[in-house]
Amino acid sequence: MRATMLLADSAQVADGKLYILGGGWSVTGPGPVPSAVAIKIEVDRHEVDRLHHWELVLEDEDGRPVLLGDENPQTVEVRGDFSVGAPEGVPAGTPVDVPIAINFGPLPLAPGGRYVWRFVVDGETLPGALVSFSTRPDTGNSN
What we know:
about 0% helix; mainly beta; Immunoglobulin-like; elongated; about 55% strand
C-alpha cells in the first residue's frame, strides 16, 4: 500500500474520486481556519478483500500528538476502516484506489509552529503518508 496526501481548504469524495478546493498549501494562519486532508490510498492486489483500519493523527514538530482544549485536552485524530475489492477487467498488478477526504473546522494551533499529519494503515505509516505544514507567526494581523 501507498498513500498520497494533500492539504486543502476543503475536499470531498464523489464517484470514487477526490474533489479538492484550495489544495496544495503548506503554510496557514496564524489564526484558525478550516482545512482538509485529501488522501489517495493505492491498495495492492494482495491486500484487497479484507478490512483495513486507518488513523490520521496531527503531530507537533517533535512527533508528539497535538492536544487541543483547555479543560480536557484531546488529540486531533480521525479513525476509520475500509475494504476494497479487485475491479473486474483491470489488468493484474494494477493497484485499487481508495480516496478519503477529511475536513476540519478551524483548529486553534499555535502561531509559528510546525505540524505533521501522519496517516497510518493497519498500524504502519505508509510510504507517502506524511504531510507537513507551518503556521505563520502572529504579527498582529488576522490572516
